Amino acid sequence: MRRAAFVTVLCVLAASRGAFAGGNDLPDVHSKSAVLLDAETGAEIFGKDADEVRAIASTTKIFVAMAVRKKGMSLDGWTEITKDDAKAARGGAKTRLDIGQSFKNHDLLRAMLMASDNRAPTALGRAAGMTPKELIAAMNDVAKDLGLKKTRFTDTSGLRGNVSTAREMALAIRAALADDVLRDVMSTDEVIVKSRSGYEKIRYGNTDRALGSKWQVIGGKTGYTESAGYCFVVGAVVAGRPVVMAFLGADGKLTRFADFERVADWVDRGAPGAKVKVAAKRARAKPRITVSARGHAEE
Predict the structure, then answer these.
(1) Spatial separation of the C-alpha atoms in residues 70 and 77, rounded to whole Å
(2) C-alpha dihedral sign at 297, 88, 106, 172
(3) Which end of the chain is more exposed for a tag (fewer CB within 10 A), N or C?
(4) Residue 249's domain is classified under what CATH number?
(5) d(C-alpha 243, C-alpha 238), whole Å
(6) pTM of the prediction?
(7) Any domain includes 18
(8) Tens of pLDDT, residues 25-40
(9) What range defines the domain where residue 202 resides?
(10) How many other C-beta atoms lie within 10 A of the C-beta of residue 40?
(11) Is 110 strand, coil or helix?
(12) Is the separation of the CB atoms in 34 and 48 below 8 Å?
């Protein structure tokens, strides 16, 4: 009986240690690359191969959003989905934006950021007066403006190419969430998008499953391709502190969200063993992330 109790205790201790990397109280992150940054200072609190260059899949789309916003695209304007948009989206998840139908640009942002519809990026680029090549150049300019030296774009959706690092993607989501419009879109659980003709009424759900967690999630973006694995970038307030996280190269669809939970739990416990001291700050009434420098899809 005593031996059985002893074995049970050992099992409990082993399971508890399994929640942290190497038994040293750091979170046991399964994604191949990850980082947790203080959103206000950019300081690294936790990292795992945070500067390794990797494919980023549809997390690319936060750069599309920042590029068209920088161009001053009208949110209330209407844009028609074309065969060129369909061509650019080939090889991706099933789209719900039909060729020949027109949608408000604000709704195309929702389709792209919430459900990762791959026909939306080139349509939004056209709405902002850019060809696909010009949109890609504008996305690279956004990365340059943010000081992201390892982030490169060759494609508008992330289906073919596009690379960055966990650290640079965390800085990118911080910049995207500083935009009131983009933050509102990325924090929305569900929306109904209507075409101009009224023929299309599409219910989009957000692929960011962290929105349903116990944490105060400000907004995030998912991504998946075979080469990139499952990716997730997100901003949240944990223990009263605004933080940004990036998880790249997870093997399982839910792994990236479990990694987010593990890291958030660790921060909530005081982040023992963190690279910088973590002290809880009083949460703002409407938390947002600031920048100090200038239908579900399979994602």
Answers:
(1) 16
(2) positive
(3) N
(4) 3.40.710.10
(5) 7
(6) 0.87
(7) no
(8) 899 999 999 999 999 9
(9) 23-268
(10) 16
(11) helix
(12) yes
